[in-house]
Structure formats: C-alpha cells, structure tokens
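debug: dumping io for the single-chain case to check the tokenizer round-trip. Nothing else runs in this session.
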Amino acid sequence: MAANDYHFVSRWRVLGTIDEVFGLVSRSEELALWWPAAFRDVLELEPGDDDGIGKIVRMETQGWLPYTLHWHIRVDAMDPPHGFGFNVWGDFDGHGAWSFAADDGWIDIVYDWRVSVRKPLVRYLSPLLKPLFASNHRWAMSKGEESLRLALARAHADPEARIALPPPPGHVSYPGAAIVASAVALLGLIVLQKRRES
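debug: decoded output
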C-alpha cells in the first residue's frame, strides 16, 4: 500500500429505522444540512437512473485540519435500504460503500472507504503525516455519527422537544488558519525538495 493510500472502516450504531437511515445517508444533496462539520458543499450533477445508479455528485469537504477536499462520486451499486456504493475521483481516487443492517430498533452502519489521495498537500505529506490525516478522517466520521443521531432524534421529536435539541456540530473555525496552512505548506515544500534530492 502506497503512503497516500488509505483504507478506513467506520462503524456507527443509531436508533431509527433502516429506511429513514438509508434515506438520510443516500440523499447526498442533503449531507451538508445534517452533517455540516464535514460537508461544506454538495451539488448533484446528474440524477442517474430510476434506481440512482449513475448519479454523479460533486463534494467539498473539510475535517478539523485547515484544508478542503474537492471530489466527485458516481453511484455504481444500489441495494435499498441495505446499502450503496460509489466510485470516487478528484482529490480522492477510489471507492466508498455504505451498508445498513437493522437490529431490534437500532441500525448498524458500516462505511468502507478505500482511496488514494491525489490532493498534492496530503499526497506528498502522507509518508510523514499519515496518522494526522487519518485522525482528520476519523474526526469527520465521528461528527457524522453524532449528526445522524441528532437528525434522527429531530425527526422523531415533538415540536417542543425538537426546539431543545442542539444543532449538528459545525465546521471547525481557525483563528490562526493562515499560520497553520503556511506551516503545513512549508513542511510540504521541504518534503518535496528532499524527494527530488534523493
């Protein structure tokens, strides 16, 4: 596995029905509404066929690190309400798949993410900073599970209880983002120079 290759398997467990969980996760155009900590912008470019196969969506995402990732998905497998899969290209190249299983009122969710990172900053720094980039992914996924639980609770709550629920966790804001980004870029340039010399 190359340094810029990543494979993550995330497991969530939420209260709800398999249909509503599948619906929330598979409607990519709504990801930025209920999972705003990671999804900054989502735009459906092509709807695909009646089953959603061939749907193409453009994504802009960010974790707790101060850089954004731009990528596209094309749905290549759809098995409602048990799961779906998609090819990925852009700052990532690879495949992602969601699966859902009902368990006595709970839904067990598995997200399998196998990608090579193409974004130069992450690609060239992966030999040194892979654990940091992996923690960025894990942070985004933990916020996704928290956000999905809130979205499901909001859907089942009466109006008074709904008002009392907190909003989903939002984007991380960086007062010193320019300093952090400059430091990471400088480190990237050093790594590139050392690679060229060797």
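debug: round-trip ok. The longest strand covers residues 92-103.
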